[in-house]
Amino acid sequence: MEKTNLKTFFIKLIAITFSIIVVINVIFNLIFADKIEKLNSILSLDKSKFRSDLRNKIRNEIRNGLEKENILNQEDKVLLYKLYKKIQKEFADLENQ
Fold first, then answer.
1. Which distant-in-sequence residues (6+ apart) come within 8 Å of 72 by Cβ?
2. Which domain holds residue 35?
3. How many domains does the chain have?
4. pLDDT tens digits for range 81-92
């Protein structure tokens, strides 16, 4: 009688442990796997294949942007112009010193 209770206990323990492992694995894959993959791609900047892929993506985005009539929206244009003017003033101040 006691052996069957112990056997049932271990079977339930193994089943519960296995279930917990499966649930944790599913949650990990759904939530964290995507983020870890992105983090790994950022950390692999030293690999030449990743750099060439990134370079090609940037080139494609530049080509797509050049095909548009306006690359920047009005707010971005104003911000960039103000930044340009400020940098231009700082260089003029540097020349005057």
1. 80
2. 2-71
3. 1
4. 999 999 999 999
pLDDT tens by residue, 20-68: 999 998 888 888 777 777 777 777 666 677 778 888 999 998 898 888 8
Q: Is residue 69 classed as helix, strand or coil in its secondary structure?
A: coil
One-letter amino acid of 25 = N
Q: Is residue 30 part of a domain?
A: yes
- Asked whether residue 55 is domain-assigned, the answer is yes
80: tokens are 């960039």
Query: Which of 56, 74, 83, 35 is closest to 43 using CA atoms?
Result: 35
Say if 92 falls within a structural domain.
Answer: no
Residue type, 83: L
In order of 18, 52, 69, 72, 80, the CA distances from 84 in angstroms are 61, 30, 22, 15, 6
What would the two tokens of residue 97 be? 């010193």
7, 40, 14, 9: which is closest to 22 by C-alpha? 14
CA pair distance 96, 92, nearest whole angstrom: 6
